[in-house]
Write a sequence for this structure.
């Protein structure tokens, strides 16, 4: 185990009961709290942090009979698309040598792809479950906002993120979703799933009669290999009896900009607690201002610092209306566009990522290139919708995934659509 540096801490956590996951192993992203087992968020800041309680999803895994095999590597605090911003070194992609596993839940996807765990949990703020699923050739689901409890998930941008499952098959991922979904008194944003919802049972492999919408805006920036892969998937859906229609989502061209303003703004506020007093490594004694500054200077990596600075700037008096408010307006527009699209289709389909897995190091000096790769995943988080990434084809540069997006709480529809492929 851990040939690919998929784990930060490989310490098993035993189940407390028998249940639907008895005999199965699950890898858990290292921003999800585990009582007594350190939870680092991929950061030097939390390298010694041991949570006193379990996240709700961890409690549910233990009660469902799962054995947790370890805590997985990730971009620091979930900020990245390659798992290279981790303070614990990069994770390798078991499905594409020399290339990144995607991020930020790269360790979770790599653990599943390498067979180090049967299943895994990641978190998806702007694509962090779906991107690594696509790059490692596994399945990943980003649930509707409010379907899965965030209690015990260390917040990056809390209005956007959800914990989600990864697995080799759509049915496996849906089975894990069945275990973790549902309301939690400790997270007031959670909801009941639709009555009688059974996600694993929806993986029928039957798309006959389904209507699939394809937004051309989500194909615009895609590489040729990715487009070819997507065209082949669409043919497969048609051959299986689905109707394919073009639908327009003009707002998505604003999504990456709006996402990064909102995500960085929320991050600047959520990460304020890491000051060496409330949480994090100590900044030493003396003047509190200097002590806080030195804890943050030492504890945070470059990408996290960049985002805290930009987020603080976007929220500052005088710039708030120019950036943050504008981004919220764009978010509302994106939501409205999706709502209109779902009046005529059951699910939307697009490539998950516009590119195959990056080579290691390729985006490290070019954050903008990294941010733009999120073009197809972030609109879904802005609109609080569910989406699944399913392996589509293998290219010379590694696996390529297809994404299906559903209406709010329409997890069964995306599971059904995805199950025709894996
Ligand atoms: N790549 C995106 C970001 O860096 C998504 C991260 C995530 O979903 N946690 O913010």
């Amino acid at each position: 185990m851990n040939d690919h540096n998929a784990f930060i801490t490989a310490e098993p956590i035993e189940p407390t009961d028998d249940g639907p996951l008895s005999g199965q192993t699950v890898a858990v992203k290292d921003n999800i709290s585990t009582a007594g087992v350190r939870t680092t968020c991929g950061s030097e800041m939390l390298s010694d942090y041991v949570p006193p309680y379990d996240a709700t999803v961890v409690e549910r895994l233990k009660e469902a009979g799962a054995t947790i095999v370890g805590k997985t590597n990730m971009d620091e605090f979930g900020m990245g698309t390659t798992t290279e911003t981790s303070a614990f070194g990069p994770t390798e992609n078991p499905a594409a040598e020399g290339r990144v596993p995607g991020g930020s839940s790269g360790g979770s996807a790599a653990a599943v792809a390498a067979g180090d765990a049967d299943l895994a949990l990641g978190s998806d703020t702007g694509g962090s479950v779906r991107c690594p699923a696509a790059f490692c050739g596994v399945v990943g689901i980003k649930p509707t906002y409010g379907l899965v409890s965030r209690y015990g998930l260390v917040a990056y941008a809390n209005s956007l993120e959800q914990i989600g499952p990864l697995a080799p098959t759509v049915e496996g991922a849906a089975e894990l979703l069945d275990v973790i979904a549902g309301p939690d008194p400790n997270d007031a944003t959670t909801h009941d799933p639709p009555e009688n919802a059974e996600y694993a049972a929806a993986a029928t492999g039957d798309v006959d009669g389904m209507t699939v919408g394809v937004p051309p805006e989500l194909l615009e920036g895609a590489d040729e290999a990715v487009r070819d892969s997507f065209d082949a998937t669409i043919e497969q859906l048609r051959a299986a009896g689905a109707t394919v229609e073009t639908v327009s989502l003009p707002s998505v061209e604003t999504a990456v900009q709006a996402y990064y303003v909102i995500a960085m703004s929320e991050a600047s506020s959520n990460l304020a607690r890491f000051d060496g007093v409330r949480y994090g490594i100590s900044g030493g004694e003396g003047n509190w201002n200097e002590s806080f500054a030195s804890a943050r200077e030492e504890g945070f990596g470059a990408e996290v610092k960049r985002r805290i600075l930009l987020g603080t700037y976007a929220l500052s008096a005088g710039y708030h209306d120019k950036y943050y408010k504008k981004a919220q307006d764009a978010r509302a527009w994106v939501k409205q566009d999706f709502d209109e699209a779902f009046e005529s289709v059951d699910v939307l389909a697009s490539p998950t990522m516009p590119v195959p897995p990056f080579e290691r190091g390729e985006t490290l000096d070019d954050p903008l290139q990294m941010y733009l790769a999120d073009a197809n995943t972030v609109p879904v988080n802005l609109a609080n919708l569910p989406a699944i990434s399913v392996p589509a084809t293998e290219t010379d540069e590694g696996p390529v995934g297809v994404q299906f997006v559903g209406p709010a709480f329409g997890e069964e529809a995306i599971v059904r659509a995805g199950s025709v492929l894996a």
Observations:
- Residues 78-81, 104, 124-128, 156, 263, 374 surround glutamine (CB under 6 Å).
- The longest strand covers residues 387-395.
